[in-house]
Specification:
102 residues, alpha+beta, Hypothetical Protein Pfu-838710-001, three-stranded antiparallel sheet
Length: 102
């Protein structure tokens, strides 16, 4: 409430999230109302080398067989406000959803 009062609020999303841990990483499976299903990989920065973090995330992504073109570089709220969903004709979003089994 304090943060909303200080910064204002653009909107809200509703999602169901499953969290898996793998050594230095967390893997989030999100089912976001109105826009679809996503996977998010977060790697803990254990050194001052961000390239090591990116390499680790790519390693996990490769193990999960998620291609580079399946990456969606947008926030859930932005996609929802732009009325985007997996039903839109955007191949990268469709391929991400397909990889999550839908």
């Amino acid at each position: 409430a304090t943060l909303s009062a200080a910064l204002g609020e653009r909107g809200a999303i509703t999602k169901k999230r499953r969290v898996f841990t793998m050594d230095d990483a967390r893997i989030y499976l999100d089912d976001v109302d109105q826009i679809g299903q996503f996977i998010d990989i977060a790697v803990t920065l254990t050194s001052s080398d961000p390239d090591a973090c990116y390499a680790r995330a790519k390693e996990i992504r490769d193990r999960l067989k998620i291609s580079e073109d399946a990456i969606v570089p947008a926030a859930y709220l932005d996609m929802m406000m732009d009325n985007l969903s997996f039903d839109d004709d955007i191949p990268s979003r469709k391929s991400t959803k397909k990889r999550l089994g839908n």
